[in-house]
Amino acid sequence: MTDTPDMTPLDTAHAAMEAAPADDAARLRFFERLADSELFLLLAEEVAGDNVTPRVFSVEGGSYVLVFDREERLADFVGEPAPYVALSGRLIATMLKDQEIGLGVNLSVAPSSILMPAEAISWLANTLAQAPNEVEAKPVEVSAPQGVPEALLSALDTKLVSAAGLAPLVYLVGVEYEDGQHGHMLAFIDAADGAEGALAQAASEALTFSGIEAGAMDVAFFAASDPIAASLARVGLRFDIPEPAKPQAVAPKAPGMDPQKPPKLR
């Protein structure tokens, strides 16, 4: 499959899923791209305060709201000025959970045009809501990672882009703990204060959406000055996390862009 300049990450993931309908991993990657994408939700009316009213369509006996991964795609579909709001796919899935409303994605205007039933959106919301378990274990030895599936490495490489600014780098290593257990560990270096939860969640989602069955990966956080950091650098597989984008001119936030104050569906 060859990408064209107009292809978006969602188009590419959708094409891979369509090319291998029996491949669960390809389907999971599409769901992950949907969750991580900024989407433009078509509204029935202009935003009022913290409330958004999506335009609901009846299709094949079901109710759907429509999203597009480019503003111009929404404009092409509607054909006239229309209200919309930009939200992450994960936030839209959370809003629609258990509402018996499905999601129409890029309908009629892109290669990734697809109708996703309400059950699929609720599944995505439930999957994203799963938080990693927190345990205490002391590593006594780290080694080069062995037998890590390429699907997981690719998933980590993609997912860590969304962690821009939360840590400069991370190492994937094999690990042995003082209780004798062995496994793999993703070790973040110099994580920003308070970023541990978001980074652990990102790592957990990378594992979940990689399609690896019964996979496990521990997440740990170290300062560059910790004694173990030198060993991590020597044997670990390094992922550099990009710097955050430079700040743009301040503009009013659209409803839902503040994770502490999500929009309300009406």
Task: Map the helices and strands.
Elements: H1 9-19, H2 24-36, E1 38-42, E2 51-52, E3 56-59, E4 62-68, H3 71-78, E5 84-88, H4 89-96, E6 102-105, E7 114-116, H5 118-129, E8 139-143, H6 150-159, E9 169-177, E10 182-189, H7 196-209, E11 218-222, H8 228-235, E12 237-240, E13 264-265
Parallel strand pairs: 2-13, 4-6, 10-11
Antiparallel strand pairs: 1-4, 1-5, 3-4, 6-7, 8-9, 9-10, 9-12
Helix pairs in contact: 1-2, 2-4, 2-7, 4-5, 6-7
Explained architecture:
The chain is of the alpha+beta class and 266 residues long. The protein is built from eight helices and 13 strands. The protein has helices at 9-19, 24-36, 71-78, 89-96, 118-129, 150-159, 196-209, 228-235; strands at 38-42, 51-52, 56-59, 62-68, 84-88, 102-105, 114-116, 139-143, 169-177, 182-189, 218-222, 237-240, 264-265. Helix 2 (24-36) crosses helix 4 (89-96). The longest helix has 14 residues, at 196-209. It is elongated and about 60 Å long.
